[in-house]
Design brief:
ligase, Dna Ligase, domain 1, glutathione biosynthesis, alpha+beta, nucleotide-binding, magnesium, 24% strand, EC 6.3.2.3, globular, 10-stranded mixed β-sheet, 4-stranded antiparallel β-sheet
């Protein structure tokens, strides 16, 4: 294993100052900023693996796009989960209000804007496989681009120090324009919607407007602001609101325009909230049904001429249970959504094996399975929803049959561990880590089932790395660090 000298504190200080100055930071409770933890040099990946992901991910996005608009399939396939998970039941109920049922379909006015991050790990045995789809609050594309720029800054300013910690001296940085491409995709969509719904001379003066729905008091605001600044440079006005604020500020304008008080017509709504019950909870509301008022605000949005990410349909289509359904589905069934046999095989090649929870699966797991090779997942988004190893049997024993449908087993992935030592910088201090593993998120953007970039919807990537022994790799709440990617000619 390669040994290298520690980095001087002077360099560490300059690099962390660059990070904060360029928005690679989290807001603290006292409104100060703290830099994100990051690596000093990028991870490496064989070029052919990365190019394969760039090829297959837009197909996955197109699949999710079409599944999300197949409302009969969504409602029939996910009916059991609604009985097992209260939040999922709320989403299904809202979806039925928006789209009706099989005998009487409704057509909401909203247009689907699918901004998706598909997370992969490159397994040692099975190759690159999907961990999960992120169709709501699919953020951090700005951080992905900034991490690439951060490593370019280090390489230019301190080439010898960077070289000491670069695993492969021949590896070439993988270009990453995640922030710029995502902003361009959203701006294009906003301008398209604005042009489609002009109803008066006043609309000629309308500036395309982007609404970001946010959580109260969240820490990951700089990633969001980076996207807003990029949109503003492209001529798009940006505003931020919580669901609580929107519940009293939205109205309907002419031609079903979505109107925001003191702002005017909205063209794009981008949800960075809405993936958990607490996003809809307001203690001020006297409700017989929890979270009904604020979730109805989201329904109100979808009933207007506006591009929305994520729609109810998209959130359901990117759920863990839908991932399992698609994983276990025969290749031939993908023809339902317009995919030929070769395309379906390519999609299936990156889907990780999953199993539904039922009495038969539980018996198999307890008696025959290599238990450490599986992960138990519920329908929760974000970190903290996975159970590993012996704790799986304990959890399965606690579940009632009515709860089975909210859970699924997924084959555990064991990605390649980084052979070279890595410097991680956290709180302006360095630590040397061995056996780092990485997760790569591929961003794509589609509008109304059409790709929004020249690379078939691909917009950029996000690398998060963590020690192999850690289960939670989140940048903010886990042991993860922000990283970038350098490509090698072959798998050394």
């Amino acid at each position: 294993m390669k040994q290298s000298s520690p980095i001087s504190q002077q360099i560490i200080d300059q690099v962390t100052e660059w990070a904060i100055m360029h928005g690679v930071a989290f807001r603290q409770p006292d409104s100060s900023a703290k830099h994100c933890p990051f690596s000093f040099a990028p991870m490496t990946m064989p070029r052919e693996v990365f190019e394969h992901l760039i090829k297959v991910t837009p197909l996955l996005t197109q699949l999710i796009s079409r599944v999300s608009e197949d409302h009969d399939f969504l409602q029939s396939a996910l009916a059991d989960v609604a009985q097992a998970d209260p939040f999922f039941a709320r989403l299904i109920s809202l979806h039925r209000q928006a789209h009706g049922h099989a005998l009487q379909r409704l057509t909401p006015a909203r247009k689907p804007l699918l901004i998706m991050r598909t997370d992969f790990m490159d397994d040692r045995q099975h190759g690159a496989k999907v961990i999960e789809f992120n169709g709501i609050a699919a953020g951090m594309a700005p951080f992905g681009q900034r991490a690439t720029e951060l490593h370019a800054f280090i390489r230019a300013q301190w080439p010898s120090d960077h070289a000491n910690w670069q695993a492969d001296q021949q590896a070439k940085p993988a270009p990453n324009q995640g922030l710029a491409q995502l902003a361009s995709a959203i701006a294009t969509t906003a301008k398209t919607i604005a042009a489609q719904v002009k109803v008066s001379d006043a609309d000629v003066q309308h500036q395309p407007t982007f609404l970001m729905v946010i959580q109260e008091g969240e820490a990951n605001v700089y990633d969001q602001h980076l996207l807003e600044v990029a949109l503003q440079k492209l001529g798009v006005r940006t505003v931020r609101r919580t669901f609580k604020q929107l519940s009293t500020e939205l109205t309907t304008g002419a031609n079903k325009r979505l109107m925001l008080a003191n702002v005017g017509a909205i063209d794009v709504v981008y949800l960075r909230a809405g993936y958990q019950y607490v996003d809809y909870y307001s203690p001020m509301q006297q409700e017989s049904v929890c979270c009904q008022t604020l979730s109805q605000t989201r329904l109100f949005i979808e009933q207007h001429h506006v591009a929305v990410n994520a729609t109810f349909s998209q959130q359901l289509a990117t759920s863990k249970i839908m991932q399992m359904i698609l994983t276990t589905m025969p290749v031939q069934d993908f023809a339902r959504w317009g995919f030929n046999f070769e395309q379906a095989q390519l999609i299936k090649s990156v889907l990780t094996e999953m199993k539904p929870i039922n009495a038969e699966t539980i018996n198999w797991f307890n008696t025959h399975a290599a238990q450490h090779d599986w992960v138990l997942k519920n329908q929760g988004e974000g970190g903290g929803h996975c159970i590993f190893g012996q704790q799986i049997s304990e959890k399965l024993q606690q579940l009632t049959p009515q709860e089975y449908s909210a859970w699924a087993l997924m084959q555990r992935l064991y990605p390649h561990e980084r052979e070279a030592l890595t410097v991680a910088i956290r709180d302006s201090k360095q630590s040397i880590i061995s056996g780092l593993v990485s997760e790569i998120g591929i961003f794509t953007a589609f509008f109304d089932d059409s790709p929004l970039t020249e690379m078939n919807g691909y917009t950029g990537y996000l690398i998060r790395s963590k020690p192999a022994q850690e289960n939670e790799g989140g940048i903010y709440s886990g042991k993860g660090i922000l990283d970038s990617l350098a490509l090698t000619a072959s798998d050394n």
